[in-house]
Protein 1
Amino acid sequence: MQAVNYVSRTLLNAVVGVPSSVVYAAKQAGTAAVGVVGSVVSVVTAGTFKGLNTIADYTQDAPHVLPTIYKAIARVVNPNFTVTQEQGRAGLLTDRIARPIIEKAKAQAESEAVTSRHVVSRALFVAGTVASVATRVADLAIGVVAAAVSIVPCFARVQAVNTLAVRQLSSLGGIVHDVCVGFRGIVNPQQFVSVKEV
């Protein structure tokens, strides 16, 4: 009976899960594309329109495209496929190198000192964007290897490898998001200043 249940779940994932995941990934890619267009317009208008900046933030969907497709394929191999939820995590290298630089750039944009607000924050956005592209490419390479190991020899049964693959594969779309954020920050770092409560 377990074999029949396993086969039926595998077929269901192959027939329904993969196509629906591809459609969902296409929706995420479309939303990210709208964010890229919003980012370009935000850069052209120097980030002065809050509504455009909000649309530009849609690039946050870009990192989820490739992991969504990987998860669908993994569920065909193993219907009991699981990952540890790690919301808001970038790749291993990106979290340690590029993210802190970009966060520091955003913090400097809120500084009281004019030099920090206008010069240091922009320099940090440049450094963060360059570091992000380099670390995201390395993270993506790790993700491709982890996904291959997860699917082929492990049959998507090792949760740690599955989680690593999902986390690292987000780097492909993460490059798009980070480059858009970087260019927006270089043009106008103040668009990332949080609204203070009065």
Protein 2
Amino acid sequence: MENLNPLPCQCPDTFHATVLDTLPGNTRLLACLRCGACELVEAIVDEPRPHDVQLLGYNTIELTPDARAWATAWPRFLENQKPRLYFSAAARFETEADLAAARPPQSATFRETLLALGVPPDHPPASLPNELYGFREIWHGLQLNDETPIDELLDAATRWNGPNELAADILAQRPDLESYAAAYVSNFSDQNRKYGRYLISKFKLSDIQVMVAIRARLSELTDDKTGELSELTRTLATLGPAAQPARPELEAAAARVKDTDYYAHKDLMQLLSKLT
């Protein structure tokens, strides 16, 4: 029989918080906001029928002393609170009323909140398990700053399971995003064009140089075999009415793929219908 209590304490589960962030699958680093117990656990579930997920118990994943000390030093949040309200690693509450009334300071960005509440000062230990890979990425994301090269920031912002939000916080402070977006969206490199589309959609960039670059790139695409035409269509859709200057190129692209690519044509026509 698996353990039905994820933490080695008798405190009510209303005190159980998730440390730092959710993890892939059914794994969580859980901490008790009453007694301080903390464990890396994997929920064991069964689904005998569709949409009938049943919890069978928890497996505890062992942590070395170094990994435990480092991982449990991060802020934590209650799963049932939206938006997330983070507590420091040292926060403790004797009663549920105390916990419900608590309002720890939250900053405008994820980065500022973490730094205000406290994070591990040292590099992730070598013994940190793969299940906590995301914690390692977030720690490295906190080392990004205004001096970090923009390509490094863009890699961190777009990489799967990377410190996406932390990198975006730094990018948002740059005054030159429009110039980079315009240069990247028409660059010879597929990766750089991906970065350009990310900047445009993430930060809603639509000044003249950005729109000139997008329109030029749309004119160069004769089909959607690489998926780039669809990606540009989705990027422009995030701009709303600000995408209107690209209407002639969108109409021309729709005409080019009308008889060869049903889905690309459909996406283009849907976007055009919103720009009328």
Protein 3
Amino acid sequence: MYFRSGLIYLQAHDWLRGNAAFQQALDLAPYQDHYRRFQDEASIEAARSLPPSQKDDLMDEAEAALQKGIADNPLNAAGLARLGYHFRIRAAWAGTPASRQYYLDLAMRMYEKAVILGPRNVPILVEAAELYVDRSDVGRAAALAQEALRLQPRYAPAYALWGDIYLLRGDLVNAEAAYRQALTIDPTQTLQERLRTVQENSTDSQRRLELAVIYKVLGRPAEALQEVRQAIGSMDNGPLPIAQQILTSLQP
């Protein structure tokens, strides 16, 4: 009953009540690990609109709940990946570079364990690869992305991931093609979710280039142009060749 109530609250974007309902569900059934994922989702969404001190308190509570689930079931790959995702969000919200790096390192540890325990879990492979992209580790990101598509050839987020990888390689043509393939497979969700994820890190010039190309593929050239110009403006040693290519491709 409480779990269903939590889902209803999530659909209504009533995040705090959803969080409370999932906690009640966990109190009655503490070994239902998937409840924790929904509770964490409610906590993160609620925290987005809170001031920093309250945000940290809510995220600390959510982290403790996830850690308890892992302590109860340390071989749960999905639980480890969810904690990794939680740490990625905390890294994006971190107030200092040191704090950001701290949470990224924690996230990487969780995903590495999750990949070992769930080597055929395609969403986990893609999420782990996204973190390697954030670290500009193209080789490891590409290896996981390739394995994800071998296991599930029409998994749209894997194609969006390849778009990111090709951009890191400076290959605009294949980056656009990968993003377009993701859009073809899933016209309504994958790239929009990728936009939201990237926007949380959009002060980084590489993230802005990703935004620019995704906006272009989505048919939003004005926003694409704005992002690539901001990316170029933040590059201390002059624009990268890939940035110039994106800019040129957007010129009338």
Protein 4
Amino acid sequence: MRQGVQTPTLEDHPFFTDGVTWSAIGHYVEEGGRVLPAVGTYRLRQATAGDARLTGAILPSDPDDDLPEAPARWRLDVNLRLVLVGGDHTAWQAVMLIDDPDNGGRDAFWSWHSLTMGDLTGHFSAVGDSFLNQAFSEDGSYGLTECFLLAEEDEAYLVRGAVARDGQTIGAWALELTLAEES
């Protein structure tokens, strides 16, 4: 991606390759300052008609009925385990539905329902060898900001992010994503 790309699009980034899985390793810092090791995966694939249930749509029970159109272009599944004291862990999971890119392919909006933060809408934006992710909850009380910096070998990203509630940081993370597999 690095050579010859004047104005990169999201699809120029290896992250936005259909069927790709990225291994994640790093740490998460809680509101009180405790640092927790984090491991997991990010998996991107084309959204399907069945993903419509993530938007609250009720799918037909009769297999002869038409399914709705896919609610988005991509589906991003994020699964992270935060390792607690004593080796126990807690899971953090998200399923984001990402719309078709617009603005010349540089931007894409996404949605996600979080049990903690409610409905979030976000925006990926390609910026050179990085892409940014910014989101807010429906009521505006939660905000999320991330930067995905493509590493030199194009098979890894350095991710830095933070989440805030009412303007105060309640969590931050530093992850390295490495290409695990493509299907």
